[in-house]
Design goal:
Elements lengths: L2 H6 L1 E11 L7 E6 L21 E3 L9 H5 L5 E4 L2 E4 L9 H5 L5 E3 L2 E4 H8 L3 H7 L2 E5 L7 H13 L4 E5 L5 H7 L5 E5 L5 H8 L3 H14 L4 E7 L7 H13 L4 E6 L5 H6 L14 H13 L3 E4 L2
Bound molecules: iron/sulfur cluster (SF4) (2 copies).
The site of one iron/sulfur cluster (SF4) has 12 residues, from helix 3.
């Protein structure tokens, strides 16, 4: 494929975050892609889970002017006095409401962007990547969910000489991992549980497939992999499970593990999506609470960090 053709390929992009420092080495831009095969109920980015962009309504920015309802061709929105109501089953995703809202109270979770457009944003920060030993991180959602766009994206990024990290939940076909692997410098590999049944029940995750892909990466070069475990109360926040993560990293020669403390920062997004959030009352975990697990991992010879 010629470079010009690749630059025209589009992906469903949620956001490009500039100057990120927790998603790989140095200063990075993080491309968040729409779509994920898992359904983690604690997800901090619930708007990323569906394949299609999700309509999000922010009550605090809404002035209840009714313009969105007036322009909606499906009569999916009702605005009355101080209330905004959407019938999502009627919505066709045309984004007319988003375009006509004067206050940016409606926004869709992602928009189509060509690789050329993505690249023009990334290139603005070239001096920072170079200075800091940073680069580009692709995250989501799950980046492999848009595999047909992901491949030309990583190829173009490599062609431009970027250091590329990919954050993944590991749930994708092995053939896709094999195809993308030559273009990725570092895999931030989310490992949520080592119990197949618990993982499936809570998230829909397929542990044998996740392990198959992890083993493939580690057989080739475990030094490219960072194991990341989001620590979630009532799911994996127990000594045995968290120590088992470190033992897994050790057994596969993965040099680095991150324990990511549970937080509720995504709570507002559930409200914007009209979705219940079952972790709303759960207490956030502190660095102090996860310290013993990081220390245990270090005792096995791993580099261990709390947070990204
Ligand atoms: S157009 Fe925007 S500000 Fe006006 S009612 Fe709709 S969402 Fe609210
Ligand atoms: S996206 Fe289109 S169909 Fe859906 S609520 Fe907005 S204007 Fe109506």
């Amino acid at each position: 494929m010629s470079e010009n053709t690749a630059l025209d390929i589009t992906l469903q992009v949620m956001e490009i975050e500039r100057f990120a420092i927790h998603d790989g080495p140095g200063i990075r831009s993080v491309i968040f892609l729409q779509g994920c095969p898992l359904r983690c109920p604690w997800c901090a980015n619930p708007e990323s889970q569906q394949a299609a962009p999700m309509l999000m309504h922010q009550n605090k920015s809404c002035v209840f002017c009714g313009l969105c309802a007036a322009f909606c061709p499906r009569e999916a929105i009702k605005v009355k006095e101080m209330s905004f109501c959407i019938d999502r089953s009627r919505c066709a995703g045309c984004m007319t409401c988003e375009k006509n809202c004067p206050n940016e109270a409606i926004r869709f979770s992602s928009h189509r962007m060509s690789i050329g457009e993505i690249l023009s944003i990334l290139r603005r920060d070239d001096p920072y990547y170079e200075e800091s030993g940073g680069g580009i991180t692709i995250s989501g959602g799950e980046p492999f969910f848009q595999f047909s766009g992901l491949m030309p994206l990583v190829q173009v990024l490599k062609k431009y000489g970027y250091h590329v990290c990919l954050e993944t939940c590991g749930q994708a076909a092995l053939s896709q991992f094999k195809a993308a692997s030559p273009y990725i410098d570092c895999f931030l590999y989310d490992m949520k549980h080592t119990d197949e049944n618990i993982l499936r029940r809570s998230t829909g995750g397929n542990l044998p497939q996740i392990m198959e892909n992890l083993r493939f990466l580690c057989d080739r070069d475990p030094g490219r992999v960072v194991l990341r475990t989001p620590v979630i109360p009532g799911f994996n926040y127990d000594r045995e499970t968290l120590q088992r993560m470190a033992q897994l990293a050790k057994a596969l020669d993965i040099p680095e593990i991150h324990y990511l403390p549970f937080h509720t920062l995504g709570k507002g997004k559930y409200e914007q999506l009209d979705r219940p959030y079952s972790f709303a009352e759960e207490k956030m975990l502190t660095e102090q609470e996860l310290k013993p697990y990081a220390e245990y991992a270090r005792s096995l010879g791993l580099a261990a960090y709390i947070g990204g």
